[in-house]
Request: fold
Amino acid sequence: MKSIKTHFLIIMLTFTSVFASAQTKPANPFGLVYGDAITENVPGKVNIHAVTYKLNGIEIAANIYTPANFDPSKKYAAVVVAHPNGGVKEQVAGLYAQRLAESGYIAIAADASYQGASGGVPRNVDKPAFRIEDIRGMADYITQYAGVNAERLGVLGVCGGGGYTLAAAQTDKRFKAVATLSMFNSGVVRRNGFMNSGVSTIQERIKQASDARAQEAAGGKVLYAADSPMPTKEEELAKIPYDLYREGYIYYGNTHKHPNSTFRYTMSSLLDLMTFDASTNMELINQPLLMMAGSKADSYYMTEDAFKKATGTNEKELYLISGATHIQTYYVPEYVEQAVNKLNEFFGKYSQ
Reply:
């Protein structure tokens, strides 16, 4: 017990140090909260371009990263990057989009509809069909962007965005290569709980979602799930049994906090989430597939399950990022480097 407490004390001291130093830095002009983010567009270097576009009547906010010495008269491979549940384009999705641009790709990261800086009401709707359509919408936009070769399009989904990426790629063959990082199967977890910890309350939560939908339809208050404040104190974090959530609270609530990022989602979204499984129909993916996860990630079982079901492609690889937990793949330099190197190898082979 003493060693466990010491471990969490180290975590919190590290977090406090990182957070304090972050507060002394000026705000990033692009709203980016990840390390080594672009602070200005300099000729000859990777540049970032904020854009908006309409998707099914909703205005989507996105960032496009172009490589150094970008020439719109030339043709570049492109990558769509889908962010985690509760995340926004300025966090891990932006980091990987920037790193891909540094490798010569044009990359797009967009806030999901109803989330972040994108439009849609009520706020924080999180329905699988919408998230899948968001990924297709990014493909629509980026394949029309100056300098993009639409025949060299890849997709990378992170966490929840990874699960939705698998679902999108099953039928959208514009994606020539499909990659996921720390894939999170949103529907299965919303239904069964993380590691099946909520199976006994499934029917109770379905009833809550049904009642919430009825209340919305009657013009009442929109109800939200996961809407409580994030724990930040050492003793609160120490009680959380899963690395994914414990480290996630530190990442989203402190070290990489962004005002547009929130864990909450409309309670009525559960009506759709609880019947969704990202690993259903995995055999429809016939494109090259790369699934990456931290070797110490407690969420790994989701990646493993989906990968086993991907029987429709002859080109697939399960890559473990040595030493990393789920959240550490979002920002720890040595783990990001492992992932980026693997992505460069993968996209270089299959989308170039």
